[in-house]
Amino acid sequence: MSPTRSNSQQVPSSSLEEIAASARNGFACMFSTSAEYEAALIDERRAEGRYRKPNDWPVITFWGCVLAIACVVLLATV
Asked: Is residue 51 within 8 Å of residue 45, measured between CB atoms?
């Protein structure tokens, strides 16, 4: 037997190239810039309803209660 390896034990270089290409594709990003990523992230969050306009009713209710208490106090002192 000769000390050299047989061809069945060697990995063909084309398969190594294919493996390397598939590994690189696994790390590929679908966004080319961070601005595209941020825009897609904001669109997704808007679709979930995270960026709704805050409701003004708690503030209106607070000031209505303050006004009602002030009226009661003023009418009680008269």
From this structure: yes
